[in-house]
């Protein structure tokens, strides 16, 4: 019975802790470069997106996906 109460008390304390929420914003970015990178001995597409403020964002995607240079997409960016 004491073990159950101890686990319940610990669960109650952790539920009061602040959550690890992540705040993001969406920016419009244009695909400017496609490279191939090997991550964990797996080939992946390394996509470089550039927003209106000339900030580059790099995203890894599977090789089976098809992307066109110059295409626009909304990218989530950490605030």
What's the helix and strand layout?
Blueprint (H helix, E strand, L loop, with lengths): L1 H14 L8 E16 L2 E10 L4 E7 L9 E7 L1
Antiparallel strand pairs: 1-2, 1-4, 2-3
Concise overview:
Helices cover 18% and strands 51% of the residues.
> Helices and strands: which structural class?
alpha+beta
Helix content: 10-25%
Widest β-sheet, arrangement of strands: 3-2-1-4
The major beta sheet can be summarized as:
4 strands, antiparallel
- The CATH class, by name, is Mainly Beta
Measured between the Cα atoms of the first and last residue, the distance is: 46 Å
Q: What order do the SSEs take from the amino end to the carboxyl end, as H and E?
A: HEEEE
Beta-strand percent range: over 45%
| Total number of beta strands | 4
Global geometry: elongated
Unreliable parts: none
What's the CATH topology name? OB fold (Dihydrolipoamide Acetyltransferase, E2P)
Rg to the nearest angstrom? Answer: 21 Å
Number of domains: 1
CATH architecture: Beta Barrel
Query: What is the count of DSSP helices, taking H or I runs of 4+ residues?
Result: 1
General description of the model:
- By secondary structure, the chain is of the alpha+beta class.
- The chain has a single domain (22-78), classed as OB fold (Dihydrolipoamide Acetyltransferase, E2P).
- The protein is 18% helix and 51% strand.
- The protein has one helix and four strands; from the N terminus they run αββββ.
- The protein has one helix at residues 2-15, and strands at residues 24-39, 42-51, 56-62, 72-78.
- The protein has a four-stranded antiparallel β-sheet, with no helix packed on it.
- Strand 1 (24-39) and strand 2 (42-51) form a beta hairpin.
- It is elongated.
- The chain starts with a helix and ends with a strand.
- The model has no long low-confidence stretch (mean pLDDT 83).
């Amino acid at each position: 019975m004491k073990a159950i109460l101890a686990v319940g008390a610990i669960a109650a304390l952790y539920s009061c802790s602040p959550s690890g929420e992540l705040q993001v914003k969406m920016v419009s970015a244009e695909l400017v470069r496609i490279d191939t990178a090997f991550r964990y001995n797996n080939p992946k597409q390394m996509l470089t997106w550039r927003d209106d403020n000339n900030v580059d964002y790099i995203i890894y995607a599977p090789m089976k996906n098809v992307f066109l240079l110059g295409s626009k997409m909304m990218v989530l960016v950490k605030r």
